[in-house]
Design brief:
The complex is a heterodimer of chains A (490) and B (212). With 490 residues, chain A is of the alpha/beta class. Chain A has 17 helices and 19 strands. Chain A is 31% helix and 16% strand. In chain A, α4 packs across α7 and α14 packs across α16. Chain A is globular and about 55 Å long. The chains are: A alpha/beta (490), B alpha/beta (212).
Chain lengths: 490, 212
Amino acid sequence: MNTSPTSLPATLRQPPLETKVPRTLLDKIWEQSVVVPESEQHPAVVFVDLHILHEVTSGQAFKSLADRGLKVRHPERTVALADHAVPTGSPDASGNWPFANASTRKSVELLEHNCRTHGIECFSLNDDRQGIVHVVVPELGLTWPSSVIVCGDSHTSTQGAYGALAFGIGSSEVAAVLATQTLLMKKPVALRVELRGEFKPQAVTAKDISLAVLAEIGVGGAQGGVIEFTGPALRLLGMDERMTLCNQSVEAGARTALIAPDEITFADLAGRKACPQGEEFERLKNLWAGLKSDENAEYARTWIVDIEKMTPRATYGTLPALSAALDESIPDSAPAGCDDAVWRNGLDYMAMHAGMRMHGIPVQHVFIGSCTNGRLSDLRLAAEVLRGKKIAPSLKLWVVAGSRSVKRAAEAEGLDRIFRDAGADWREPSCSLCVAMNGDFIPAGETCVSTSNRNFAHRQGPSGRTILASPLTAAATALKGCLTDPREVL
Amino acid sequence: MTNAQGWTHWTGRAVVLARDNIDTDQIYPGRFLSLTDRSEMSSAFFADWRFAADGSLRADSPFADGQSVLVAGENFGCGSSREHAVWVMRDFGIRVVLARSFAPIFKQNAIANGIAPVEISAADYKIFVANTQTKLEITVDLAMGQGLIFSILPLNLKIFNFKLDAFDAHCLRTGTDPLGFLLSLSEESDSFSKNQNTSHPLQVYFSKGDSP
């Protein structure tokens, strides 16, 4: 057809005004997921593509459905895993798992029962796909770019690394998603963290970058927003590292984080079982490749973080945003945006003080694992430090793979031998010491360097103390028996 | 977990926790997360603030019977999404939280359980912080978006304004619960899900059988 522009209907001659407005990645996912737009009467109704359940936050939701006589609307869009209450000890000869108590056992059995009743696939203790939700789901290839993914777990943000809008919800919302596959939600504000830099300095991992980003934003600085990570330094980060970054974004108050899918994302997805192959994958890839923020798209706020000058970091207070470089001292005053009382209480709780050198702080426990740093690449980093060496006799080191699949892969590479020979305890996959509800805990007054995500007071056990750090720093600390800059042992 | 009854006015005694960033691990410590029966959870409420290691009451606990309004600083309810924090808060008797700001998931959980998450100004928060030892009585009016701080000794009366989203206020006042509202829109959701033109990752996954 050879139609001149003037003969087109008036509405087609000029694109509608809104198409000219540059859109963010968040805008694009949001627009294709909204069932009923936000109005003066109610927030938007958002369709959920994938709903993930675990034993801690789903029990009351299923009870709520039962009380109201409701069914699960889309069991085929729902998957369940046991992770929080799962023991890290090995099963006995007859296959019985060493649950810490009757209630942890009951919570896992209840999850299995609810899933059977409602026809939901559940990877529990008798399944070799079991592991931490945010490790297993991407591992199977279930985390598709542009999907809306929810789970009754704040660290669902981990999966934003694939360009999925993935976030945590409460149990009432879990019930709503079970019954309707939708959520009521106001559109979160778009924020941006631009990561600059052409190289990663020695011993700087995604965890160190994450702690530096949190220190920059502050503990509540991103409250309710969705952080999009952008910038040239993303090219230096593989999917595991991107997941570490997105995982910790919630510790800045963000609802979740996003990274636009790129060649690194597609290469990761290509071999995974839940990803189609051949033409269908090419078709999806083309769709997903368009999922990036337009040039000049507006963000409510942008932080620029340069990774080239970074050095390994660890936390010193009881908030993930309170961290310092390991070759520095604890600062003399609270950072901007942190209440002075919060800062001082945190130091008191940790038995630390302003001006104290980070390097050399006494440590009794080291935990390597969790949805933040429990993947194969994390275990490889730690094993590299520990290979052929022994941990300090004064200290206990636990290595807990994030999933059965991570554990099998690590064992196939001989990493378990390196850990065991060094004196570590090589345990079964679980959330373990990150949430400390399965019977694993840090005794009162003792300090743990942990690759997990939260150093809140009492988080790893009543009056237990937590220092967050990377797998490299954790391993170096295990060797020396005190908080140690990994560059000393590499 | 349903917000059975709506309410518009609430009057009660305040407990002032003059701290920012009170996380849900403080409100409901992780070691109680395996409890599956709501009736067993209550004693976990701020357990490490209220009880010593031997189970006795801590002398420095700010909590007392009869408190139903909790006052705190910025970013209240940050951290874990656990709704357990809100369940035990409600069991303790709290119906209003006055804070400088809230973590988003906590706020949703509060509304779903009939607890009003009310944002107050820095100036009004300062009044509370200066009076942590005073017995303060608070009245909150969700319709007006206003509250009243009342103390007997020293005699003091102060009106404060607060921010609460219109839909959230509606849910609290009418006892509307988001699940019921979403069920009323199930036709729209169903037609939306039918129009989705891609396969689903779980379907792809299970179509490949048990191969790795």
